[in-house]
Amino acid sequence: xxxxxxxxxxxxxxxxxxxxxxxxxxxxxxxxxxxxxxxxxxxxxxxxxxxxxxxxxxxx
Length: 60
Description:
By secondary structure, the chain is mainly β. Helices cover about 10% and strands about 50% of the residues.
Protein backbone atom coordinates (compact mmCIF):
# COMPACT_ATOMS: atom_id res chain seq x y z
CA UNK A 1 0.00 0.00 0.00
CA UNK A 2 1.01 3.58 -0.60
CA UNK A 3 2.06 5.79 2.29
CA UNK A 4 -0.41 8.38 3.47
CA UNK A 5 1.28 11.52 4.66
CA UNK A 6 1.42 15.26 4.63
CA UNK A 7 3.70 15.57 1.56
CA UNK A 8 2.09 17.19 -1.48
CA UNK A 9 3.42 18.24 -4.89
CA UNK A 10 3.50 21.98 -5.56
CA UNK A 11 4.30 24.03 -8.65
CA UNK A 12 6.70 26.99 -8.39
CA UNK A 13 6.45 29.78 -10.97
CA UNK A 14 8.92 32.61 -11.61
CA UNK A 15 7.74 36.05 -10.49
CA UNK A 16 10.23 38.14 -12.51
CA UNK A 17 9.46 36.34 -15.77
CA UNK A 18 5.76 37.27 -15.51
CA UNK A 19 6.60 40.95 -15.06
CA UNK A 20 9.19 41.06 -17.87
CA UNK A 21 6.63 40.23 -20.58
CA UNK A 22 8.94 37.76 -22.33
CA UNK A 23 7.31 34.72 -23.97
CA UNK A 24 7.35 31.37 -22.18
CA UNK A 25 7.50 30.61 -18.47
CA UNK A 26 9.76 29.07 -15.87
CA UNK A 27 8.11 26.47 -13.62
CA UNK A 28 9.44 23.82 -11.26
CA UNK A 29 7.66 20.96 -9.47
CA UNK A 30 8.70 20.08 -5.93
CA UNK A 31 7.18 18.60 -2.77
CA UNK A 32 6.49 20.14 0.60
CA UNK A 33 5.18 18.98 3.95
CA UNK A 34 1.79 20.64 4.52
CA UNK A 35 2.03 20.15 8.28
CA UNK A 36 5.38 21.95 8.66
CA UNK A 37 4.85 24.65 6.00
CA UNK A 38 1.15 25.51 5.62
CA UNK A 39 1.94 28.81 3.86
CA UNK A 40 3.00 29.17 0.24
CA UNK A 41 6.71 28.68 -0.28
CA UNK A 42 9.22 30.87 -2.11
CA UNK A 43 12.52 29.50 -3.40
CA UNK A 44 15.32 30.93 -5.51
CA UNK A 45 15.60 28.79 -8.65
CA UNK A 46 17.37 29.20 -11.99
CA UNK A 47 15.35 30.73 -14.82
CA UNK A 48 16.82 29.49 -18.13
CA UNK A 49 15.10 32.18 -20.22
CA UNK A 50 16.40 35.10 -18.13
CA UNK A 51 19.66 33.19 -17.43
CA UNK A 52 19.77 34.07 -13.73
CA UNK A 53 18.48 32.95 -10.34
CA UNK A 54 15.07 34.40 -9.51
CA UNK A 55 12.37 34.01 -6.85
CA UNK A 56 9.80 31.32 -7.66
CA UNK A 57 6.51 31.31 -5.74
CA UNK A 58 4.07 28.47 -5.20
CA UNK A 59 0.91 28.56 -7.33
CA UNK A 60 -2.31 26.61 -6.96
